[in-house]
Amino acid sequence: MSNEAATATTGVPTAAEAAPAPEQIPHGLGSSLPPADARAKTEGTFPYAADLWAEGLLWAAVLRSPHPHARIRSIDTTHAREMPGVRAVVTHEDVPGTPLYGRGRADRPVFASEVVRHHGEPIAAVAADHPDTARMAAAAVIVEYDVLDPVTDPEQAFEAEPLHPDGNLVRHIPLRHGDPEAVGEVIVEGLYRIGRQDPAPIGAEAGLAVPRPDGGVELYTASTDPHADRDTLAACYGLEPERVKVVVTGVPGATADREDQGFQLPLGLLALKTGCPVKLTATREESFLGHAHRHPTLLRYRHHADAEGRLVKVEAQILLDAGAYADTSSDALAAAVAFACGPYVVPNAFIEGWAVRTNNPPSGHVRGEGAMQVCAAYEAQMDKLAKKLGLDPAELRLRNVMATGDVLPTGQTVTCPAPVAELLQAVRDFPLPALPKDTPEEEWLLPGGPEGAGEPGAVRRGVGYGIGMVHMLGAEGADEVSTATVKIQDGVATVLCAAVETGQGFSTLARQIVQETLGIDEVHVAPVDTDQPPAGAGCRGRHTWVSGGAVERAAKMVRTQLLQPLAHKFGMSTELLQITDGKITSYDGVLSTTVTEAMDGKELWATAQCRPHPTEPLDDSGQGDAFVGMAFCAIRAVVDVDIELGSVRVVELAVAQDVGRVLNPAQLAARIEAGVTQGVGIALTENLRTPRGLIRHPDLTGYALPTALDAPDIRIVKLVEERDVVAPFGAKAVSAVPVVASPAAIASAVRAATGRPVNRLPIRPQAAVVTEQR
What we know:
It is a single chain. The chain is α+β, with helices and mostly antiparallel strands and 774 residues long. It has three domains: 50-149 and 204-254 and 258-289, Aldehyde oxidase/xanthine dehydrogenase, a/b hammerhead (Aldehyde Oxidoreductase, domain 3); 297-476 and 617-767, Aldehyde oxidase/xanthine dehydrogenase, molybdopterin binding domain (Aldehyde Oxidoreductase, domain 4, 2-Layer Sandwich), CATH 3.30.365; 482-610, Aldehyde Oxidoreductase, domain 4. The chain contains 16 helices and 29 strands. The strands form seven sheets. The chain has a seven-stranded mixed sheet. It starts with a helix and ends in a 13-residue tail after the last strand. 56% of the residues are buried. InterPro entries: Ald_Oxase/Xan_DH_a/b, Ald_Oxase/Xan_DH_a/b_sf, Ald_Oxase/xanthine_DH-like, AldOxase/xan_DH_MoCoBD1, AldOxase/xan_DH_MoCoBD2, AldOxase/xan_DH_Mopterin-bd_sf. It holds the Pfam family MoCoBD_2. Residues 43-149 form the Aldehyde oxidase/xanthine dehydrogenase a/b hammerhead domain. It comes from Streptomyces actuosus.
């Protein structure tokens, strides 16, 4: 990715440029401190969960339903149990505790017993001496089904027979804001569809369960929310939470919930049943079948505006396909409805939102859930409105963007920094990339690359815009709290916090906080397990805010313990002392000593919590202060489209984002680049096809992830550092909002190049073909 302009404009280097020389390791907040595990991961020595091993290890395999909807007549495990090398077979009859679990709502069975509701639902699990034996034994479990017609169209779910005892409706939010009789002089309408995206983790999903002498069990997995997983596991195992321990190990990165709880549950059951360690490594197919996906969404919109293009009213209907179980669909729907109008001032808004069950694969938390789907729709509406009014698309948006102090359609006032106009102006005014030369040497620049069948004369360039917004932390009354402990001894600091490092950089941030606060170079972050106090899930920037805030408070308490004796000795307050590069000095220069000398062999430690201000659920009219804070991003996309073949090449994505404060420039640039690239996949290639509820091609051959060759030039043209006063360090989450804005910007650019409506993501070739040009 080319990013020379980003460095010149913002001073933020790309991730590759920011790697420091070994003798120049940076310190503290605002520096590009490299991750502690960077070398191990690049050299291939990092111990991922799939590398786990234990003495006397057994191997697990799971039998999954081949049908999206069926009634189970019988389950016969006799043949599987009698196979040589098989140590245990478990079904729903072997679940000693509650048979149901779920992240948002406990509505999903550990093993299906009477009905299967989606393709790949677990039926039974096997533990054996060899992985091949386990797989063969799982295949030997005989299940008799009465196959039922699946409900796969979410619109049909309203009238279909209940697929679940809780019914087909997961949640309905009717948002009412302003005057329902308001009408604009100009009206545009649209119908939009967003496909099913899989988080597609590159690292294999794996785990190890080890029985404990007290009758409990320890699970070693790449969990992103270990305490929530522990509580779920304990309830299903019929054990007290203190007898179940989750140890986080080998997380290879996450863009969603990293581990499916349904993957972990059979492991512990088999370990408890056999009294032996049990390991399970999912195949790629099992990974696609097991974990949650992005919600496919159907959106109907009607925008009203006056003659100058100022929005008067937005009406929308939003239908989320939750799949077979609720999972986090309620949260996703709240975000979709609340942000249905985007970062624009809309005096009147009437939004109907539903999340419904179907027999499709379960949907759940994927980065930017809810907000990404509506962004694609409301930005398409803004393009339509600009075209109808004869206005420049960027100008129309500038006339409507919100700012700090404006009110969301939920009635919540935007109190955090909202420099949306500044962001949009930055990408609009950034120089456009040069046109490719019409020569053989430049064929690789054409859509389809050098082997493409198109003609250079059929290529059209388009420029489009996308402005996204996301909420940070949990919403609607979620209790966001994290606890951290900081210890220092012998010149070394240790941080204990159950915040999982999922690639978002928390471990690096924690080291930077302690370095800056205590002036200690060597800082270690302890491994995470559930013996530590909870820190919550690693999503929506919560560990930067909540866990980082807890580390900062604990470090400051230790700082006070360190400085208090010196301040008392010299008759001054601790505020008059500062720590820099391991040295303690007073404002007048009278005191000058090192941190090590001041410690004098002592061990100092402190524990602190961080809890943001409370939020509230949306009421029956969709009103309420549901969000702690928000982050915004503007992206300008430049694309080349072959209007005969419908192939699209993303030439450049210019990004401007409000980040609150840059804590680690290299890390921040890498997160933005990764989010933007993920958005390219959403816009052009990623679509998990599920005809009649069956996942087609559950592998990375059939599911087209964008590679380095698909990544465009990403120009970070502006980072607005207007600190959020209620957030620790003033920083905002940076990963999700580029994912939200980039698909909308790419679709906008394809519309500009072709004149076609482009109302579906990912963009299919036929949507970009201009037939009259043939």
